[in-house]
Design brief:
Elements: H1 19-59, H2 64-78, H3 82-91, H4 100-118
Helix pairs in contact: 1-2, 1-3, 2-3, 2-4
Length: about 120
Amino acid sequence: MHQVTTPRTEHPLSTAATPARDEALLAEVVELRARNEQLGQALVSRAVIDQACGMVMALAPCTSEKAWDLLVDMSQRCNIKLRDVAAALVATTKDDPLPEPIRQELRQALRRLHTADRR
């Protein structure tokens, strides 16, 4: 069956706009732009985190859930944002050194994971 849709009525922005309405529209535009920027950053961060999870899965080997948990745990123990831990790990593929606190925590996290898997 075909669904019949009616065209939406467009409300022109310029019809009898009051200063209060202009202010409200401006505030909404600013909020939407900020939200759009945050979503864009989240998408980029998520891609890097997914790449880091893949690296952990190759190192461990483990499931994606365990890799995620390992990265979150490392982030919390180092007091470094997850996206920054992931970015540092991924940067090693371009011969960037892993910062010492992250390197030490990764070594310990992999040991903990290996020990837990033996039980």
